[in-house]
Design a protein that fits this description.
Length: about 425
Amino acid sequence: MLIVNSEKVADNLMDKRSLNYSDRMDMSKMLKPYGLDFDTALIQHDVTWRGHRRVLQQTLRPEVIGVYQSTQLRCAVDLLQNLTCTPASWWKHLRTFSAAVILGATYDHELSKDPENDHILRAVVDGMELALELSSAGPIALISALPILKYLPTWIPGPRWANAANCKRLMDEMINAPFEELLKKMAAGEAGHCVVADALEKFKDTTKVENIERSIRNSCGTAYAAGEETTGSTLIVFTLAMVLYPSVQKRAQAEIDRIVGADRLPDLNDRPSLPYVEAVFRETLRWKPVVPLAIPHAAANEDIYDGYLIPKGTVILPNLWAMSRDSTKYPFPDVFDPERFLDADENITGDTPNFAFGFGRRICPGRHLASGSVWIAMAQILASFSIEKAKDTSGNTVEPNPEWATGATSYPLQFPCNFVPRRL
Ligand code: HEM
């Protein structure tokens, strides 16, 4: 295994030599039997993967991403309403916002008012949780060493992922439930713009991708699994930063009040006029990268880099955490300081912490959607609420010291804080 701590080396290998460094670890023993072979992020750098990327890139590129703005705004309205009605459940509301945006943008699915009882949400959450469990180090090592495990009967007590047929059933449900619902809406002429509908239309006559419907079904099924937890976690990191750095929060609010005013909420058209809010967004991605070790790449062939031999099959681990801590680029890296993305005239610099989205051909195809979703939620929260430290029953300030989820995605677990309305 090769752990890459430097952004420059990561670019040199995975971007400049992307033909050689876009494979994934060989997980063939588990992908098909456990139903994970739908997952764009896990499959090899082959013709199936190219079909997936074509679908996601064409429908999520910056030139067309604007069509999902109405979904992002609708979900932001619901988020503000939820935060107003039940502020103590802020953590859950941020995750619900993230789920709503992805399901809306991908399948034109509008969450029901009571998300707990939304059968599509249930299906994708069950599938995603299982997929994340299965693709973590423990199960991969066990299943690769003991492929016979896939036949473990369901009545033997063990982890949820132990029975392969059961996993496959849940994965199929995650992929098919929202897809079939959209097909029905399309047949009734009731479907709005969304990634799946746009892809079915755009690629209907294509000969370039074999079995295009399967590619659309599977790559879009990956979008929820790859996009919900990451987008929601980034917003939770932002919340922590605002609680810990009140002067940053005040400056961002002052910029919104000055440029947008108090009569309306900021929208994505305001983004270029709000450099400080943009800097807060970039610093949030840098400060605590939510996928700290990205997704490992693998070398398709032997290579020599900087005098070192990299054998065929070497697993390359991009250490995004170390890149975010590069003190030559980001002095005092543990401090949340948006000013590092501003020049002397307080304009935004050209530096974007793109490493947070990975590298080369495998770079996150949902990054433009994620960027708009996180930004709109951040800007509208800043305009509408002050996020403050909580007080205990005696009126003493409670310092947030959250525990962090450990796994492929890293984010603060629920911590006490108050969302105090600014506009009454
Ligand atoms: C702030 C939010 C997000 C972050 C930080 C993030 C980060 C990442 C990272 C680090 C990777 C691994 C890239 C690599 O292997 O080099 C990745 C892959 C991926 N992401 Fe995201 N992501 C986010 C949101 C999204 C969204 C909203 C979607 C879908 C709409 C999405 C879809 C994907 C897919 C499909 C892959 C696999 C790409 C491949 O293997 O070819 N992500 N993401």
